[in-house]
Design goal:
- By secondary structure, the protein is mostly helical.
- It folds into three domains: 100 residues, Cytochrome Bc1 Complex, Chain D, domain 2; 97 residues, Cytochrome Bc1 Complex, Chain D, domain 2; 42 residues.
- Helices cover 58% and strands 0% of the residues.
- It has twelve helices and no strands.
- The longest helix has 46 residues.
- The protein is elongated, with a radius of gyration of 30 Å.
- It starts with a helix and ends with a helix.
- About 5% of the residues have low confidence.
């Protein structure tokens, strides 16, 4: 009985995994995995706007590409290579545990959303107008945690840093965000990423505590300002300041030990001197 179950166990696991993929809501999957790079009707981000994408390629091509983008590119498919060129060489990650059947559900979702007057995946629409000094200052306050996030998420500075923060600057768990505005190709890409972070670590933190629009826009303003000033900003001296602080602490600690040790040494010497004096007196 146990041997039979063990033999069937791999098949059972595959079945459960397949069922879990099929059980997932396509809209929820798109929100968690796609919106950081794609919109439906909101314009291009890192990847293309997917509105009416089924008019550019047939459904089966889209299913094959969604299932394994790299394989399509490696095969030399002309349209896949064109997409790669448009995204500046960024290859779409291969979705994990996705089946052709679920890929078809995603294609159907995109077609359904494309037909709407305004898709739920249109993304944040940010004006090209210059941000104000107040926008930038509020963004810095949100980054540093001086303005608490509405949904209770942690402050950016707890894991990240940017040039120009002062003091010991920010955390080192996550990457330096001084040039994140450039890396995500401007306001729309950055805002989309902040709305639905694509990394596993950020998803685990912010999926239940998402940033609000009135928090995202000031952060975009702050990061844009950091990016513009990065060319003239002084070199990051946080590590050097940390070294100096540590060195100062060591010097203070040694000074304290020296004071305490001298007192201890003096008390020992005093006893030795008194004993020697007594010996001399008695010897006389």
């Amino acid at each position: 009985m146990k041997r039979g179950f063990r033999r069937r166990l791999p098949g059972v696991l595959v079945l459960l995994l397949t069922c879990s993929v099929h059980a997932q809501d396509p809209a929820e999957y798109f929100k968690q995995n796609c919106v950081s790079c794609h919109t439906i009707g909101g314009g291009r981000l890192t990847g293309p706007d997917l509105q009416n994408v089924s008019e550019r390629q047939d459904a089966e091509w889209l299913v094959r590409f969604i299932s394994n983008p790299k394989a399509m590119i490696d095969s030399g498919d002309p349209y896949a290579l064109e997409l790669l060129d448009q995204s500046r060489g960024v290859v779409m990650p291969t979705p994990q545990n996705i089946t052709p059947a679920f890929a078809r559900e995603l294609v159907a979702l995109i077609q359904e959303e494309s037909a709407k007057e305004e898709s739920q995946f249109r993304g944040l629409q940010i004006s090209d107008a210059p941000f104000t000094a107040m926008d930038i200052a509020r963004g810095k306050a949100v980054f540093e945690g001086r303005v608490k996030l509405t949904n209770g998420g942690p402050a950016c500075v707890s894991c990240h840093n940017t040039a120009g923060l002062g003091g010991l600057e920010g955390g080192r768990l996550g990457p330096d965000l001084t040039l994140v505005f450039e890396r995500l190709e401007g306001r729309k890409g950055l805002a989309a990423w902040l709305l639905n972070p694509a990394t596993v670590t950020m998803q685990s933190v912010f999926s239940e505590q998402p940033l609000q629009q009135d928090e995202i826009l000031p952060l975009v303003a702050y990061f844009e300002d950091r990016s513009k000033k990065s060319a003239i900003a002084p070199a990051n001296t946080a590590s050097f300041r940390f070294f100096l602080l540590g060195l100062f602490g060591v010097i203070v600690a040694l000074a304290l030990f020296d004071i305490l040790w001298k007192k201890r040494l003096r008390s020992v010497r005093r006893t030795q001197v008194l004993d020697a004096a007594n010996e001399v007196l008695h010897g006389r």
